[in-house]
């Protein structure tokens, strides 16, 4: 008995803890809930030091929410599950999934099938589970649409406590959702502890920086707040001197205040200053000492507390009892004692236990010697396995030890957990799990299946390790399909490790060992493409390989060889049209779901280099559709980058920019690796022509991996940067870049003038430096090769460059021939350039009326294409003829931004807002905003009117 309170009945439980001095925060959160119910999205981020009351505040918020008319999803992050992808996401959604029937779940997964990769598969339709190679962005967007579908049924409140401990995949989803939450009936509430390392501080900072985010920072308790807690614990108030002393000792931290008061109460001390002599610091050290003191005085409670600390919150009591070495009755009594001390509370209707604060668990674990802690986790893993826990739960404990898994059960669990991790888009975790199956360093791995799985998992994480492990496994694998897969992955790993020559040799030597003839052809096709990544092996391939691209293409292997051969031959003008014919045959005979999209992309590129950007654009779109449906986002990004080049050559500048933006949005620059120069080069060219020199400069100034310099893609970047320097009136610097690009193109035998425009801009740089003879030499060479290859677009550009070295009638004649070559060509930007040059030449020859008419055509075409730089040039030339200035309005199709143009075209083709949003990986609200702007600019009242401006086969009328 203490001050009239029966100590036997005193219990410090989470649901009985008093929330003090938090009226303002509760009011803000309640208002945000009401906004979400009214259809306005919001974000709240609670920040504060350990013990400031964030968790209790969230608990109280959830307890005040009505049970009907609102979905409430909660999760509490735990460092023990930090390595496992989408653990927090599953905490949020699994209780809801368990309550849904099949029709409801199917409805919620509409447009969100990839959400199945992150959610538990136990209740999901089996056809929703589609494991793929690259799921990251698609899974996030699938979860986003799943959440949107859920919010469409009822407003949604998502509460995540201790978000700084969330697994990376879940944190990426929360960030993805936060960026798109505007206009949705969703409230996202997070808490994070300040002063501790977070899973990814940048992602939490991104959430905090969202315009809709309200950051709440609960402050320390006031004197009045401390007085309220004193009365709650002791049944009466204390004097101001005691309140002041408590404030000084604890800094007003609610957890420390409550712990201090509880320690006094349980020790029979009164709430007076005289009762505080043993407290000597204000940093909470007494809290740690109080925890240790209880562990020393109550052995059974200590064992139960250590077991719960090792197992993690919400662990099954019977499993914790086994780990603690206690029978169920003794364990239950020990947990009730811990509850009386204020350490734990019952959760899940009393079926499980949870620490009232994570700091208690941290103190307990910190006092365990590393070896003892490792043994406890190993024992916990076995107990969980015997209790039927999921593989990832068991593996989580195995990862907490540094010992390799030697027992069969542990290896089996780790392999299963690795497969789940790969399925959920977490290859790095799969690698960590499988590496735990390897013997100690210095010993040779003997488990071939583990080596195979590890090598394949490492392919996108650690290519060098992947190569090492796959090479070790290769000699033990003889089944043709698996050996084919190993060889293909091993070759890819060698290429990514900068060992393209070794990849070519490997495929040449080992392809016959797969047995199956068509699998050998597929590896041969891969060998051809691998050789194009290494100058030495490429030169040998060009000399020795027959490049027979006339084969019929009746099997996937034959079609792969046709595509690879056509792609490599198309970079030389003399075989461009032959390559185009072969590429068409391969694409026409291809079988969806059978032929590799990689080879389909290669065939499309052969069409692009043959001067057929319209056909290439259609072929790229086919691959984009396939990659979007299968969510192979790296392939999607690559095809968007190549399609951007096709759209640029067609003169569709806004769509070219939209494609490069889509490629770089879906596949972040860090994931492009050595091929980043590909989309950036096209982006620079399109930005220059659009008049956005600042944007072009920013694109050129970004950082590229050092390995980029060893690729043919870097040639294209040098061309784009050289042109940009020429635009900034630096012809000397431009010529250095452009000639280096040309030298490298010859090295790579990319000698067709249709492959790259480096020669054209180098010629212009020579002219700017007063060297017309050098410009003429480049132009004549390009014209000669374009004639031989029947490359009309390159021929038109070459003749236009050659004309700049001439005067008078010779100049007019060359420009007229250029226009004739471009007659009927889809390359509208090149035609617009030639029209402007021809009009200026006509004016110089005194043919003013003809000049005005030609310049007006060039001016209108430049305006229609959005080529602002060319439009300004044409306008100046037209004014020089004495013509009246023409008024340019900020309306019409040409005034649309790249994003608006892309959305408008898709809407005109019949796409709904939802379909457009899913395809472009944006929100419906973004689509609505774009369409509203489009309607205003083109002067229509709805999407039906868009058909007058966007039609089948045309970018715009």
Q: Report the principal-axis shape.
A: globular
* pLDDT < 50 runs, ≥5 residues: 1-13, 121-135, 279-284, 953-957
Strand content: under 5%
Separation of the first and last Cα atoms: 89 Å
Helix share, percent? 55-70%
Query: SS-based structural class?
Result: mainly alpha
Number of contiguous helices: 46
Determine Rg (CA atoms, Å): 34 Å
Major β-sheet strand ordering? 2-3-4-1-5
Largest sheet: 5 strands, parallel
Tally of DSSP β-strands: 7
Mean pLDDT across the residues is 84
3D structure, described in words:
With about 950 residues, the chain is mainly α. Helix content is about 60%, strand content about 5%. It contains 46 helices and seven strands. It has a five-stranded parallel β-sheet with strand order 2-3-4-1-5, sandwiched between helices. Strands 6-7 form a two-stranded antiparallel ribbon. Helix 45 (about 915-920) crosses helix 46. The longest helix has 18 residues, at about 135-155. The chain is globular and about 110 Å long. The N and C termini lie far apart (about 90 Å). Residues about 1-15, about 120-135, about 280-285 and about 955 have low confidence and may be disordered.
């Amino acid at each position: 008995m203490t001050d009239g309170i029966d100590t036997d009945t005193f219990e410090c439980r989470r649901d009985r803890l008093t929330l003090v001095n938090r009226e303002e925060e509760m009011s803000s959160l309640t208002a945000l809930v009401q906004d979400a119910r009214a259809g306005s999205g919001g974000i709240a981020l609670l920040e504060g030091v350990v013990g400031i009351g964030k968790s209790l505040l969230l608990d109280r918020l959830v307890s005040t929410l009505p049970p009907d008319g609102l979905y409430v999803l909660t999760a509490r992050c735990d460092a023990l599950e930090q390595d496992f992808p989408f653990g927090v996401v599953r905490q949020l959604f699994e209780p809801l999934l368990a309550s849904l029937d099949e029709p409801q779940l199917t409805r919620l997964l509409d447009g969100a099938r990839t959400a199945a990769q992150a959610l538990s598969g136990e209740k999901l339709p089996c056809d929703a589970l589609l494991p793929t190679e690259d799921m990251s962005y698609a899974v996030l967007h699938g979860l986003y649409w799943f959440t949107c579908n859920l919010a469409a049924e009822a407003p949604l409140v998502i509460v995540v406590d201790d978000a700084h401990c969330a697994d990376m995949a879940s944190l990426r989803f929360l960030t993805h959702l936060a960026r798109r939450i505007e206009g949705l009936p969703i409230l996202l509430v997070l808490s994070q502890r300040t002063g501790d390392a977070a899973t990814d501080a940048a992602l939490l900072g991104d959430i905090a920086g969202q315009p809709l985010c309200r950051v709440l920072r609960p402050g320390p308790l006031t004197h009045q707040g401390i007085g309220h807690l004193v009365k709650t614990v002791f049944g009466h108030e204390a004097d101001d001197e005691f309140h002041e002393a408590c404030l000084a000792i604890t800094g007003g931290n609610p957890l420390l205040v409550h712990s201090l008061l509880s320690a006094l109460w349980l020790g029979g001390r009164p709430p007076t200053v005289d009762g505080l002599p043993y407290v000597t610091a204000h940093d909470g050290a007494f809290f740690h000492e109080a925890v240790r003191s209880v562990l020393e005085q109550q052995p059974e409670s200590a064992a139960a507390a250590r077991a719960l600390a090792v197992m993690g919150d919400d662990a099954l009591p019977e499993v914790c009892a086994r780990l603690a070495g206690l029978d169920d009755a003794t364990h239950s009594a020990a947990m009730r004692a811990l509850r009386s001390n204020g350490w734990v509370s019952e959760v899940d209707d009393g079926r499980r236990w949870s620490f009232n604060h994570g700091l208690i668990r941290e103190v307990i674990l910190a006092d365990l010697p590393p070896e003892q802690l490792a043994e406890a986790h190993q024992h916990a893993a076995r107990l969980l396995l015997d209790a039927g826990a999921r593989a990832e739960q068991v593996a989580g404990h195995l990862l907490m030890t540094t010992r390799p898994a030697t027992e069969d059960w542990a290896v089996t669990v780790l392999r299963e957990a690795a497969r789940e991790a790969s399925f959920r888009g977490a290859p790095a975790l799969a690698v960590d799990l499988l590496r735990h199956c390897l013997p100690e360093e210095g010993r040779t791995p003997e488990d071939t299946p583990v080596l195979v799985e590890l090598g394949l998992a490492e392919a996108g994480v650690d290519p060098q390790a992947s190569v090492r492990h796959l090479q070790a496994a290769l000699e033990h694998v003889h089944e043709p399909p698996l050996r084919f897969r190993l060889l293909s992955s091993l070759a890819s790993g060698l290429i990514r490790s900068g060992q393209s020559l070794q990849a070519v040799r490997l495929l040449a030597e080992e392809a016959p060992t797969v047995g199956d003839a068509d699998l050998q052809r597929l590896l041969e096709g891969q060998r051809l493409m691998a050789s194009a990544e290494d100058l030495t092996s490429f030169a040998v391939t060009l000399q020795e390989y027959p490049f027979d691209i006339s084969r019929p293409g009746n099997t996937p292997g034959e079609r792969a060889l046709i595509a690879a051969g056509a792609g490599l031959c198309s970079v030389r003008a003399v075989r461009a049209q032959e390559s185009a014919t072969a590429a068409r045959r391969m694409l026409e005979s291809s079988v969806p779901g059978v032929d590799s999209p990689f080879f389909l992309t290669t065939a499309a590129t052969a069409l692009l280099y043959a001067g057929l950007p319209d056909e290439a654009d259609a072929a790229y779109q086919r691959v984009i559709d396939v990659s979007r449906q299968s969510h192979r986002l790296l392939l999607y990004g690559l095809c968007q980058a190549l399609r951007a080049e096709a759209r640029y050559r067609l003169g569709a500048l806004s769509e070219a920019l939209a494609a490069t933006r889509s490629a770089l949005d879906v596949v972040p620059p860090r994931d492009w690796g050595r091929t980043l120069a590909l989309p950036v080069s096209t982006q620079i060219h399109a930005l220059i022509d659009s008049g956005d020199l600042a944007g072009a400069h920013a694109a050129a100034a970004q950082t590229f991996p050092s390995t980029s310099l060893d690729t043919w893609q870097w040639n294209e970047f040098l061309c784009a940067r050289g042109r940009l320097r020429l635009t900034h009136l630096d012809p000397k610097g431009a010529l250095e870049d452009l000639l280096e690009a040309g030298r490298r193109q010859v090295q790579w035998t990319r000698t067709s003038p249709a492959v790259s425009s480096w020669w054209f801009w180098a010629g212009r740089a020579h002219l700017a430096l007063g060297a017309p003879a050098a410009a003429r030499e480049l132009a004549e060479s390009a014209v000669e090769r374009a004639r031989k290859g029947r490359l009309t677009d390159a021929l038109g550009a070459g003749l236009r460059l050659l004309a700049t070295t001439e005067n008078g009638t010779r100049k007019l004649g060359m420009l007229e021939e250029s226009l004739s070559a471009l007659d009927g060509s889809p390359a509208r930007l090149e035609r617009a350039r030639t029209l402007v040059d021809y009009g200026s030449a006509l004016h110089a020859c005194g043919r003013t009326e003809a000049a005005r008419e030609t310049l007006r055509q060039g001016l209108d075409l430049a305006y229609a294409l959005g080529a602002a730089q060319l439009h300004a040039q044409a306008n100046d030339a037209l004014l020089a003829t004495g013509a009246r200035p023409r008024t340019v309005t900020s309306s019409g199709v040409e005034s649309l931004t790249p994003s608006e143009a892309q959305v408008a075209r898709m809407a005109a083709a019949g796409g709904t807002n939802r379909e457009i949003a899913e395809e472009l990986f944006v929100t419906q609200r973004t689509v609505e905003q774009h369409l509203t702007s489009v309607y205003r600019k083109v002067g229509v009242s709805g999407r039906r009117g868009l058909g007058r401006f966007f039609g089948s086969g045309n970018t715009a009328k």
